[in-house]
Design goal:
Elements: E1 2-6, H1 9-16, E2 23-27, E3 42-43, E4 49-50, H2 56-71, E5 74-77, H3 83-96, E6 116-118, H4 126-134, H5 141-168, H6 179-195, E7 200-210, E8 218-225, E9 228-229, H7 238-248, E10 253-265, H8 273-284, H9 288-300, H10 316-329, H11 372-388, E11 393-405, E12 411-423, E13 447-459, H12 468-478, H13 486-495, E14 499-502, E15 505-508, H14 510-522, H15 529-543, H16 549-570, E16 578-583, E17 590-596, E18 599-604, E19 613-614, E20 623-627, H17 629-633, E21 643-648, E22 656-660, E23 669-670, H18 678-696
Parallel strand pairs: 1-2, 1-5, 5-6
Antiparallel strand pairs: 3-4, 7-8, 7-13, 8-9, 8-12, 10-11, 10-13, 11-12, 14-15, 16-17, 17-18, 18-19, 20-21, 21-22, 22-23
Helix pairs in contact: 3-5, 5-15, 5-16, 6-13, 6-14, 8-9, 8-12, 9-11, 9-18
Length: about 700
């Protein structure tokens, strides 16, 4: 019997279908070794030597795998081909050799003198698995070292910097090498919004029509004055807009130039991890976490290629298959004669995978999935891939210049544009929003009738707050993080209560802003975008064998430790406590508002002698300006209904809930945010369900439980 070990049971079930009776495919359920959760686990005096342990939840599985390996003729490690997957394979090898810690052998090896092979593949299909079996390789220790370096680096920052925050702000806080940079991006954007001052400007449009025949309205915008182009802010006030309107209203309008062109629109590149998450958010409304959970399922079922990638490569076989499918199903005009290829622009792209694509070209309605959400994501990937191998969409575009002479003899230039589709091309498979605007037939010199002038007031807007999609895009553009880390980064800053998401946008919390402020002022390198991106590039060099990982850690730790020691002495403790008029019911001393990891709470000023503490009554400060639905249905209260307010559960839960401010007269309450639509609430529940399933089918990402774990 040959033993094949993968990360998840779903993946094991799929692969077992492609191998014969001589093979047994088993799952490790993710990592079998990790740094200890309860202590630092890094020996700084011995060149950053890590101490690995077998977690309690993995011990039973390790015992089972050791028994199977002892009986097997050959062991094949088939975890994913990225740094995390390579590290899983290496840890499995170490465990099967009897090692618990990195250097110590704690038990007898069960694989001495047995062939141990490493195989990799980017899709779970019969051809890919058989090719991998026929072409095994050794574990790439350079990739393992890069993963270890990242893990140790994050552990150092988390375990050394988090206690500093406890001492200077409040207990329970954490800092992280990448999470703190993401937090800074969100806080900096919030500060930009606060400092923003809107600027007024006016736009002047003319509603025109042909004088004879076609009654189609032509909407043209003022763009020139006496032959000179006007910028966006040329008309700043209502008085200026009214003066222009008065001067132009009795003018004669005529067509002065018509330019007809053929424009083409190219398809977008195939999906990478980040663009899949962004597009899934905009088109399907899925969070990044939900997208990756669904993609993981599709991959393990053999429906798509590996979903953690920043590569835009497409295999030759997939390009041939796409051309054949398009020719057969849509006709020759929709298939390219020569395959289209793409070059990646992602800063620091390093994963040697293909782009995310379907493994076969089975139509979405024909694939077998557990939930409709999986089918929708598969369809999105299927559409995007096929579109990359289809012709451009072609449009007929027309640009018309219109001139009017005002009463003041000034010459005003207006412009209007029209566009109609000539050939849909890739849009036949991958629809995108566009507006066809057909103009009536016009001739140069033709006079037009003015129906009315339409001045409109506008104000410049501040930069938008980050959504999940735009934050991931920004992290990728700066080279911060890698495909496997985007979701953990976003998850951890929310779990730490540093940011909250409202209507799909991230807002920093008070505690998040405090943490960011102390890190920016005292550890600028840790939260510096360029420094963090440079560190990612150095980790890439470790994976390529061009940088020694111990040296990388030493170059980082020496100045970091020195600066941390100095800051412990020079930085004063932040005292965010607020006085209140409330008196402690246990000892009679004043109650104060204190900061904790989960925000503000009330505590007795007599601590530690009196340990009375409780949640803040938020009923007066968090109102939604929404009438209570139960009051509105009550004959007695509908004339003066209560308001819906946000409350916090008293015992056993940190969750917020929504209720009526007329309690106890009205007992209406709900755990579901009443400001969200049923669709949004259903999506949140589905994501929670998927995440719960993920815990029982662990793959290659350990759940972060200590201050340093980001990925």
């Amino acid at each position: 019997m040959k033993l094949v070990i993968v990360e998840s049971p779903t993946k094991a079930n799929t692969i077992s279908k492609f191998l014969g009776k001589d093979y047994r495919v088993e799952s490790s359920y993710g990592h079998v070794r990790d740094l200890p959760r309860s202590r630092f686990g890094i020996d700084l005096e011995k060149n950053f030597e890590p101490t690995y342990i077998i977690p309690v939840k993995a011990k039973k599985r390790v015992t089972e795998l050791r028994k199977l390996a002892d009986k097997a003729k050959e062991i094949i490690l088939a975890s994913d081909e990225d740094r995390e997957g390579e590290a899983i394979a290496w840890h499995l090898k170490e465990v099967l050799e009897g090692k618990n810690s990195r250097t110590k052998r704690d038990s007898v090896s069960v694989i001495d003198k047995k062939p141990l092979k490493r195989i990799v593949f980017h899709e779970i299909t019969a051809a890919a698995i058989n090719h991998a079996i026929e072409n095994p390789r050794q574990i790439d220790i350079k990739m393992v070292d890069a993963q270890q370096a990242r893990r140790i680096l994050d552990r150092i920052v988390g375990y050394k910097l988090s206690p500093f925050l406890w001492k200077k702000i409040a207990k329970g806080l954490s800092a992280g090498r990448v999470q703190s940079v993401a937090l800074r991006l969100i806080v900096d954007r919030e500060n930009e919004i606060r400092a923003f001052k809107p600027e007024e400007y006016w736009q002047l449009d003319a509603d025109l029509k042909k004088k004879t025949g076609n009654a189609t309205h032509i909407l043209a915008s003022l763009t020139k004055l006496d032959g000179k182009s006007l910028n966006k802010f040329a008309v700043k006030t209502k008085a200026e807009a009214d003066a222009l309107t008065s001067d132009i209203k009795n003018s004669q309008f005529s067509v002065t130039a018509i330019k007809q062109t053929e424009t083409k629109k190219n398809p977008l590149p195939p999906f990478t991890t980040s663009t899949l998450q962004q597009t899934s958010s905009s088109r399907l409304g899925y969070s990044a976490k939900k997208t990756m959970l669904l993609a993981q399922r599709l991959y393990e079922k053999g429906l798509i290629t590996y979903m953690r990638t920043d590569s835009l490569n497409l295999s030759a076989q997939s390009l041939v298959a796409a051309k054949e499918w398009l020719t057969k199903e849509l006709g020759a005009p929709y298939a390219l004669k020569t395959p289209r290829t793409f070059k990646g622009k992602s800063k620091g792209a390093q994963e040697a995978h293909e782009a995310v694509r379907p493994t076969t070209l089975a139509r979405p309605e024909d694939v077998t999935v557990e939930e409709e959400a999986e089918r929708k994501l598969y369809k999105l990937i299927w559409q995007r891939f096929l579109a990359t191998q289809m012709p451009q969409a072609v449009f007929n575009s027309v640009s018309v210049d219109i001139t009017a002479q005002g009463a003041s003899k000034k010459e005003y230039g207006f412009k209007t544009n029209g566009s109609t589709m000539k050939f849909d091309g890739f849009l036949k498979i991958y629809p995108q929003k566009f507006e066809e605007r057909e103009l009536p037939a016009l001739a140069e010199g033709e006079a037009l009738a003015l129906e009315k002038l339409l001045p409109s007031q506008h104000f410049t807007e501040p930069p938008p707050r980050f959504s999940e999609a735009t934050l991931i895009k920004t992290l990728e553009e700066f080279g911060i993080g890698r495909p496997s880390t985007y979701v953990p980064i976003i998850s951890v800053i929310q779990a730490r209560n540093y940011v909250k998401r409202e209507t799909g946008r991230f807002h920093p919390t008070e505690i998040g802003e405090m943490v960011n402020k102390i890190l920016v002022e005292n550890f600028p390198h840790i939260v510096d975008i360029n420094f963090t991106a440079d560190m990612e590039a150095k980790l890439d060099l470790v994976a390529e064998g061009e940088q020694e990982w111990h040296q990388l850690l030493g170059n980082f730790y020496t100045p970091f430790a020195k600066n941390l020691e100095e800051k412990y002495l020079s930085v004063d403790k932040t005292n965010p406590d607020e006085k209140t008029d409330e008196v402690c019911e246990k000892c009679g001393k004043p109650m104060i508002i204190k900061f904790g990891r989960f925000g503000k709470f009330l505590a007795c000023s007599g601590f530690p002698e009196c340990k009375n503490a409780k949640n803040i009554n938020r009923t007066e400060v968090v109102s939604l300006n929404m009438k209570c639905p139960k009051c509105l249905e009550s004959p007695e209260r509908k004339e003066k209904p209560g308001e819906v307010i946000v409350k916090q559960a008293r015992k056993g839960r940190r969750r917020m809930f929504w209720g009526c401010n007329r309690y106890p007269d009205c007992d209406w309450a709900t755990w579901n945010d009443p400001t969200k639509t049923p669709e949004e609430l259903a999506a949140e529940k589905e994501t929670a369900k998927l995440a719960k399933t993920k815990k029982t089918e662990d793959t290659d990402e350990p759940e972060p439980t200590d201050p340093s774990e980001e990925s």
